Please model this.
Amino acid sequence: MLLRWEIIAVFAVSLGASGVYAFVSLIGSLTARHPLASQSVTLNGSQAPGRPLLDLFLQLVSLASAAAPVVLACYLLARSGDGVASIGLDRTQPRRDFLRGAALAALIGGSGLGLYFIAYKSGIALNVVAENEPNVWWRYPVLVLSALQNGLLEEVLVTGYLLVRLRRLGVRPVNAIAISATLRGSYHLYQGFGGFAGNAIMGVIFATLFLRWRRATPMIIAHTLIDAVAFIGYALLVGHVSWLM
Model:
């Protein structure tokens, strides 16, 4: 019983709460006067327009705060005797982890971009603005840190921690994969139904591979690479490519 409450508590202060917020945000988008495809959502934007130094500090504080649940999950794993090794969060297989992560990034990144365009053109997704940061010296480093924060938060919690905990509760692997994938899709609902579907599919792939490899590190690498390429690529191409807005 306490383990169930531990899972609820961890996600109540992290991605579970984000899922509820994303659901409410989707309702707001659906009930707006304009169709989803004519609305937009910004993933990385200025937090203090016109004040670059303050903006930088606010960005760093926001990223650190968002990553705090990773520390909590690692602490709980260590306290229960499982440790971070139980989710493969170590440096015992650096070469294999990187190659697996890079391969996943190449596979899922390209497929995900295609799915996004299909969803956007179908009118079931918002226009996702990957970044709208000020053009200052810290722009790209912050985008990389944002990608790393996303990779750590989502893969440690939703892939590693959650699946290990569900296994201890005796949840069947197929049900654990479904729970993990649905949760991953839920906190992307603010992007529209396309965001939910694409990330849920990604969640099925990542959860299945985690149960086979018992390592979250390749997923962290893959997720970080996917987001970093998306954020920096958008920053470099926006204004030069017609389909980027």
